[in-house]
Design goal:
By secondary structure, the protein is α+β, with helices and mostly antiparallel strands. The chain has helices at 2-18, 139-142, 181-184, 187-197, 266-271, and strands spanning 39-45, 50-51, 55-57, 60-65, 71-77, 83-89, 92-93, 107-109, 114-117, 119-121, 126-134, 151-158, 231-240, 257-265. Strands 3, 4, 6, 7, 8, 12 and 14 form a 7-stranded mixed beta sheet that branches.
């Protein structure tokens, strides 16, 4: 009995050794749709409504734009609190048109809110659409700022929340060893005196001013080690888009998160090796006949239905 068990164990061990997975060839990281931990960021093709794939290469994230296509930056607040986003395209603040700095004005999203930022803000009710265009026709180049064409930046700030006010001090109970003045007075007068002693409600915070004064920062003005890409973002047609104003006090002066996405045409990204020209299949089949044509399935398949 022991000998049979020992032989079975050896057989199973040998089978396990024979079925080990062969070494896989190196594959580049799979592209993703979104980036960001506090604020989820993606680039949306407005013609199709699809989020563009984001490729990682040499420590950078890239998307492939299509010349003439309009796009939007999709934001989703992943937190349960308000967040502020200072956004730049080609080194220009999309809200104010200034050369971008992280201390400038931005958009505020409530907890869990999603928003599509689809253009350069022109007023409280209009934008000029983002659209991929030739480098020289980009808004940044046309306004004399071509050095940062081809990059999208989102700086995220958490909010400093004031501590809640202390609870009101309870009123003393009347003495029970005799009749107090309150007990002998008419009930209406007693209620009026109680109301006059209640703490006055605090004034509501103003929501008409913008956030901190602009101050250009060098955090978003990194030097480019490669030539400017062939695509930029143009100043497209006017569209209706409404916003309001609110106040926002940043928890700290530096961003809590910065998302950086570079972009260029698909042809240029393929030529640069960012996008594989011929993506290899996950499990490449050898050329020619195979000695085990029925060995593609790795484990026992489910049986067919009874009926």
């Amino acid at each position: 009995m022991n000998r049979r068990f020992f032989s079975t164990a050896l057989a199973l061990a040998a089978l396990s050794a024979c079925t080990q997975t062969p070494a896989r060839p190196y594959l580049p990281p799979s592209p993703v749709d979104r980036l960001g931990g506090l604020m989820e960021v993606s680039v949306v093709d407005r013609a199709t409504g699809r989020e563009l794939l984001i490729y990682r290469a040499n420590g950078e994230y890239w998307v492939a734009g299509r010349p003439g296509a309009r796009y939007a930056l999709r934001l989703r607040n992943r937190m349960g609190e308000r967040l502020m986003t200072v956004m730049s395209v080609d080194g220009v603040n999309v809200l104010t048109g200034e050369t971008a700095g992280v201390q400038q004005n931005g958009y505020v999203l409530t907890g869990g809110e999603r928003a599509d930022i689809a253009g350069w803000r022109k007023s409280d009710s209009q934008i000029a659409a983002f659209e991929f265009t030739a480098n020289g026709n980009s808004y940044a180049s046309r306004t004399g700022r071509p050095d940062e064409v081809g990059v999208i930046g989102v700086a995220v700030f958490r909010e400093r929340v004031a501590p809640p006010p202390p609870p009101p001090v309870p009123m003393p109970f009347p003495r029970r060893d005799g009749y107090s003045r309150e007990e002998s007075a008419p009930r209406g007068d007693f209620e009026a005196r109680n109301k006059s002693m209640a703490p006055a409600p605090g004034a509501a915070p103003s929501a008409s001013a913008d956030s901190a004064a602009p101050a250009e920062s060098s955090a978003m003005a990194q030097s480019r080690s490669q030539p400017a890409p062939s695509l930029g973002t143009g100043h497209g047609r006017r569209e209706t888009s409404y916003v309001g104003h609110t106040t926002f006090e940043r928890l700290r002066s530096s961003p809590d998160e910065v998302v950086r996405i570079r972009y260029d045409s698909r042809e240029n990204l393929v030529a640069a090796g960012v996008i594989p020209a011929n993506p290899a299949p996950r499990w490449p089949r050898p050329a020619g006949p195979t000695p085990f044509p029925e060995s593609e399935a790795g484990y026992v398949p489910d049986p067919p239905p009874r009926y």
